[in-house]
Amino acid sequence: MKAIVGLFIVMSMLISSSTYALKAGVPLDFKDAEHEELYNDMLHELRCTVCQNQSIAGSNAALADDLRGHLYKMVKEGANEQEIKTFMVDRYGEFVLYRPSFDSSTYLLWIGPFLLLLLGGTVLVLNVRSRKKINSSSDLTAEESELLANSLGSKKEKK
Amino acid sequence: MNRHMIPLVIFAALLLLFWVGLGLNPKIIPSPLIGKEAPKFEVPELHEPQKMVNNEMLKGQVTLFNVFASWCIACRQEHHHLLKLQRQGFNLVGLNYKDEKQDALMYLRQLGGDPYTMIGFDYKGDVGIEWGVYGTPETFVIDKKGIVRYKHTGPLYREVIEKELIPLIRKLEQEP
């Protein structure tokens, strides 16, 4: 019985070492804390291209298993963050990064929100200014203004 | 221009943006491989495991490199198109992605035949990662020098084959 269990364990180890697929949340061994941190950081930086709104950290897609396996292997072999990103981008394109690099194809993506903020802000400022002008330039004569002020004032007093 | 026209213009611009933006398919990711040499790989051939299939074998003639699997439902939709392309004389090389050998062989038998000159057996899916495969079926066009020139993600259909694939292959065949 023990021999069978032992054989089973050895076989399952062989199977898991022969393939790169790694299920989500499986506890892993790392050389040091730095490696573990890199692995965990990259898990959240990389998009699963099958299920596009998930990082490979939590996705259960088969491809995410494979990519996690590859990531783990690369980290173990001492690859740095840039090397891992380059590996993924060379195969899946900038889309695989949640924070794509800043280049000609992603200018609008990065600057767009600020451009819109600037546009909105400009419209707001212009609008407020033109309203101020309307308020300050009154058609009433001095006499009328005084009368208006008085009547408003008297109303307040009545209250 | 009248002041009151401004909101209308903004509305029209938004309408155009949404019209174009929502018409795009977010599942289609442009491949970074286009214009680059086909990724290096070497895997056993599906029918004859003692032979190997590698990237060098994609050179020499314009080749359709098609990634498929027996578990891939969408692959079944395009299979008769692949058979037709083979009958028309095009060179197809298959990559059987993350599949069991027996399942793959049965799949080809059931669907009317094997359209491929050779099939790489990518059991672990490593070759798939090299090619950036994320949604089978995927079809690449490789030119005579072994450069990736085109990629289609998802099943091939008549319009794509007639309007994009075949004209491109004809053009690439004219290249040295």
Topology:
The complex is a heterodimer of chains A (159) and B (176).
Chain A: H1 2-18, H2 33-45, H3 62-76, H4 81-92, H5 107-136, H6 142-158
Helix pairs in contact in A: 2-3
Chain B: H1 5-23, E1 42-44, E2 52-54, E3 63-68, H2 73-87, E4 91-97, H3 101-110, E5 118-122, H4 126-130, E6 138-142, E7 148-153, H5 158-174
Parallel strand pairs in B: 3-4, 4-5
Antiparallel strand pairs in B: 1-2, 3-6, 6-7
Name the features.
heterodimer, A: 159 residues, Helicase, Ruva Protein, domain 3, 2 domains, 0% strand, rod-shaped, B: 176 residues, Glutaredoxin, 5-stranded mixed beta sheet, 7 strands, 38% helix, 20% strand
Describe it.
The complex is a heterodimer of chains A (159) and B (176). Chain A has six helices and no strands. Chain A is mainly alpha-helical. Chain A folds into two domains: 77 residues, Cytochrome C biogenesis protein (Helicase, Ruva Protein, domain 3, Orthogonal Bundle); 52 residues. Chain A starts with a helix and ends with a helix. Chain B is an alpha/beta fold and 176 residues long. Chain B has a single domain, classed as 3-Layer(aba) Sandwich (Glutaredoxin), CATH 3.40.30. The termini of chain B are far apart. At the A-B interface, helix 3 and helix 4 of A face helix 4 of B.
CATH topology description of the largest domain in chain A: Helicase, Ruva Protein, domain 3
Helix content of chain B: 25-40%
Number of DSSP strands of chain A?
0
User: Roughly how many Å apart are the termini of chain B?
Assistant: 57 Å
Gap from first CA to last CA of chain A: 97 Å
Oligomeric status: heterodimer
Task: For the largest sheet of chain B, list the strands in their spatial order.
Answer: 5-4-3-6-7
Total helices of chain A: the number is 6
Number of domains of chain A: 2
Strands of chain B, count: 7
CATH architecture descriptor text of the largest domain in chain A: Orthogonal Bundle
Order of H and E elements of chain A? HHHHHH
Largest sheet of chain A: none
Number of helix segments of chain B?
5
The tally of structural domains of chain B comes to: 1
CATH topology type of chain B: Glutaredoxin
Shape descriptor of chain A reads rod-shaped
* CATH level 4 superfamily of chain B: Glutaredoxin
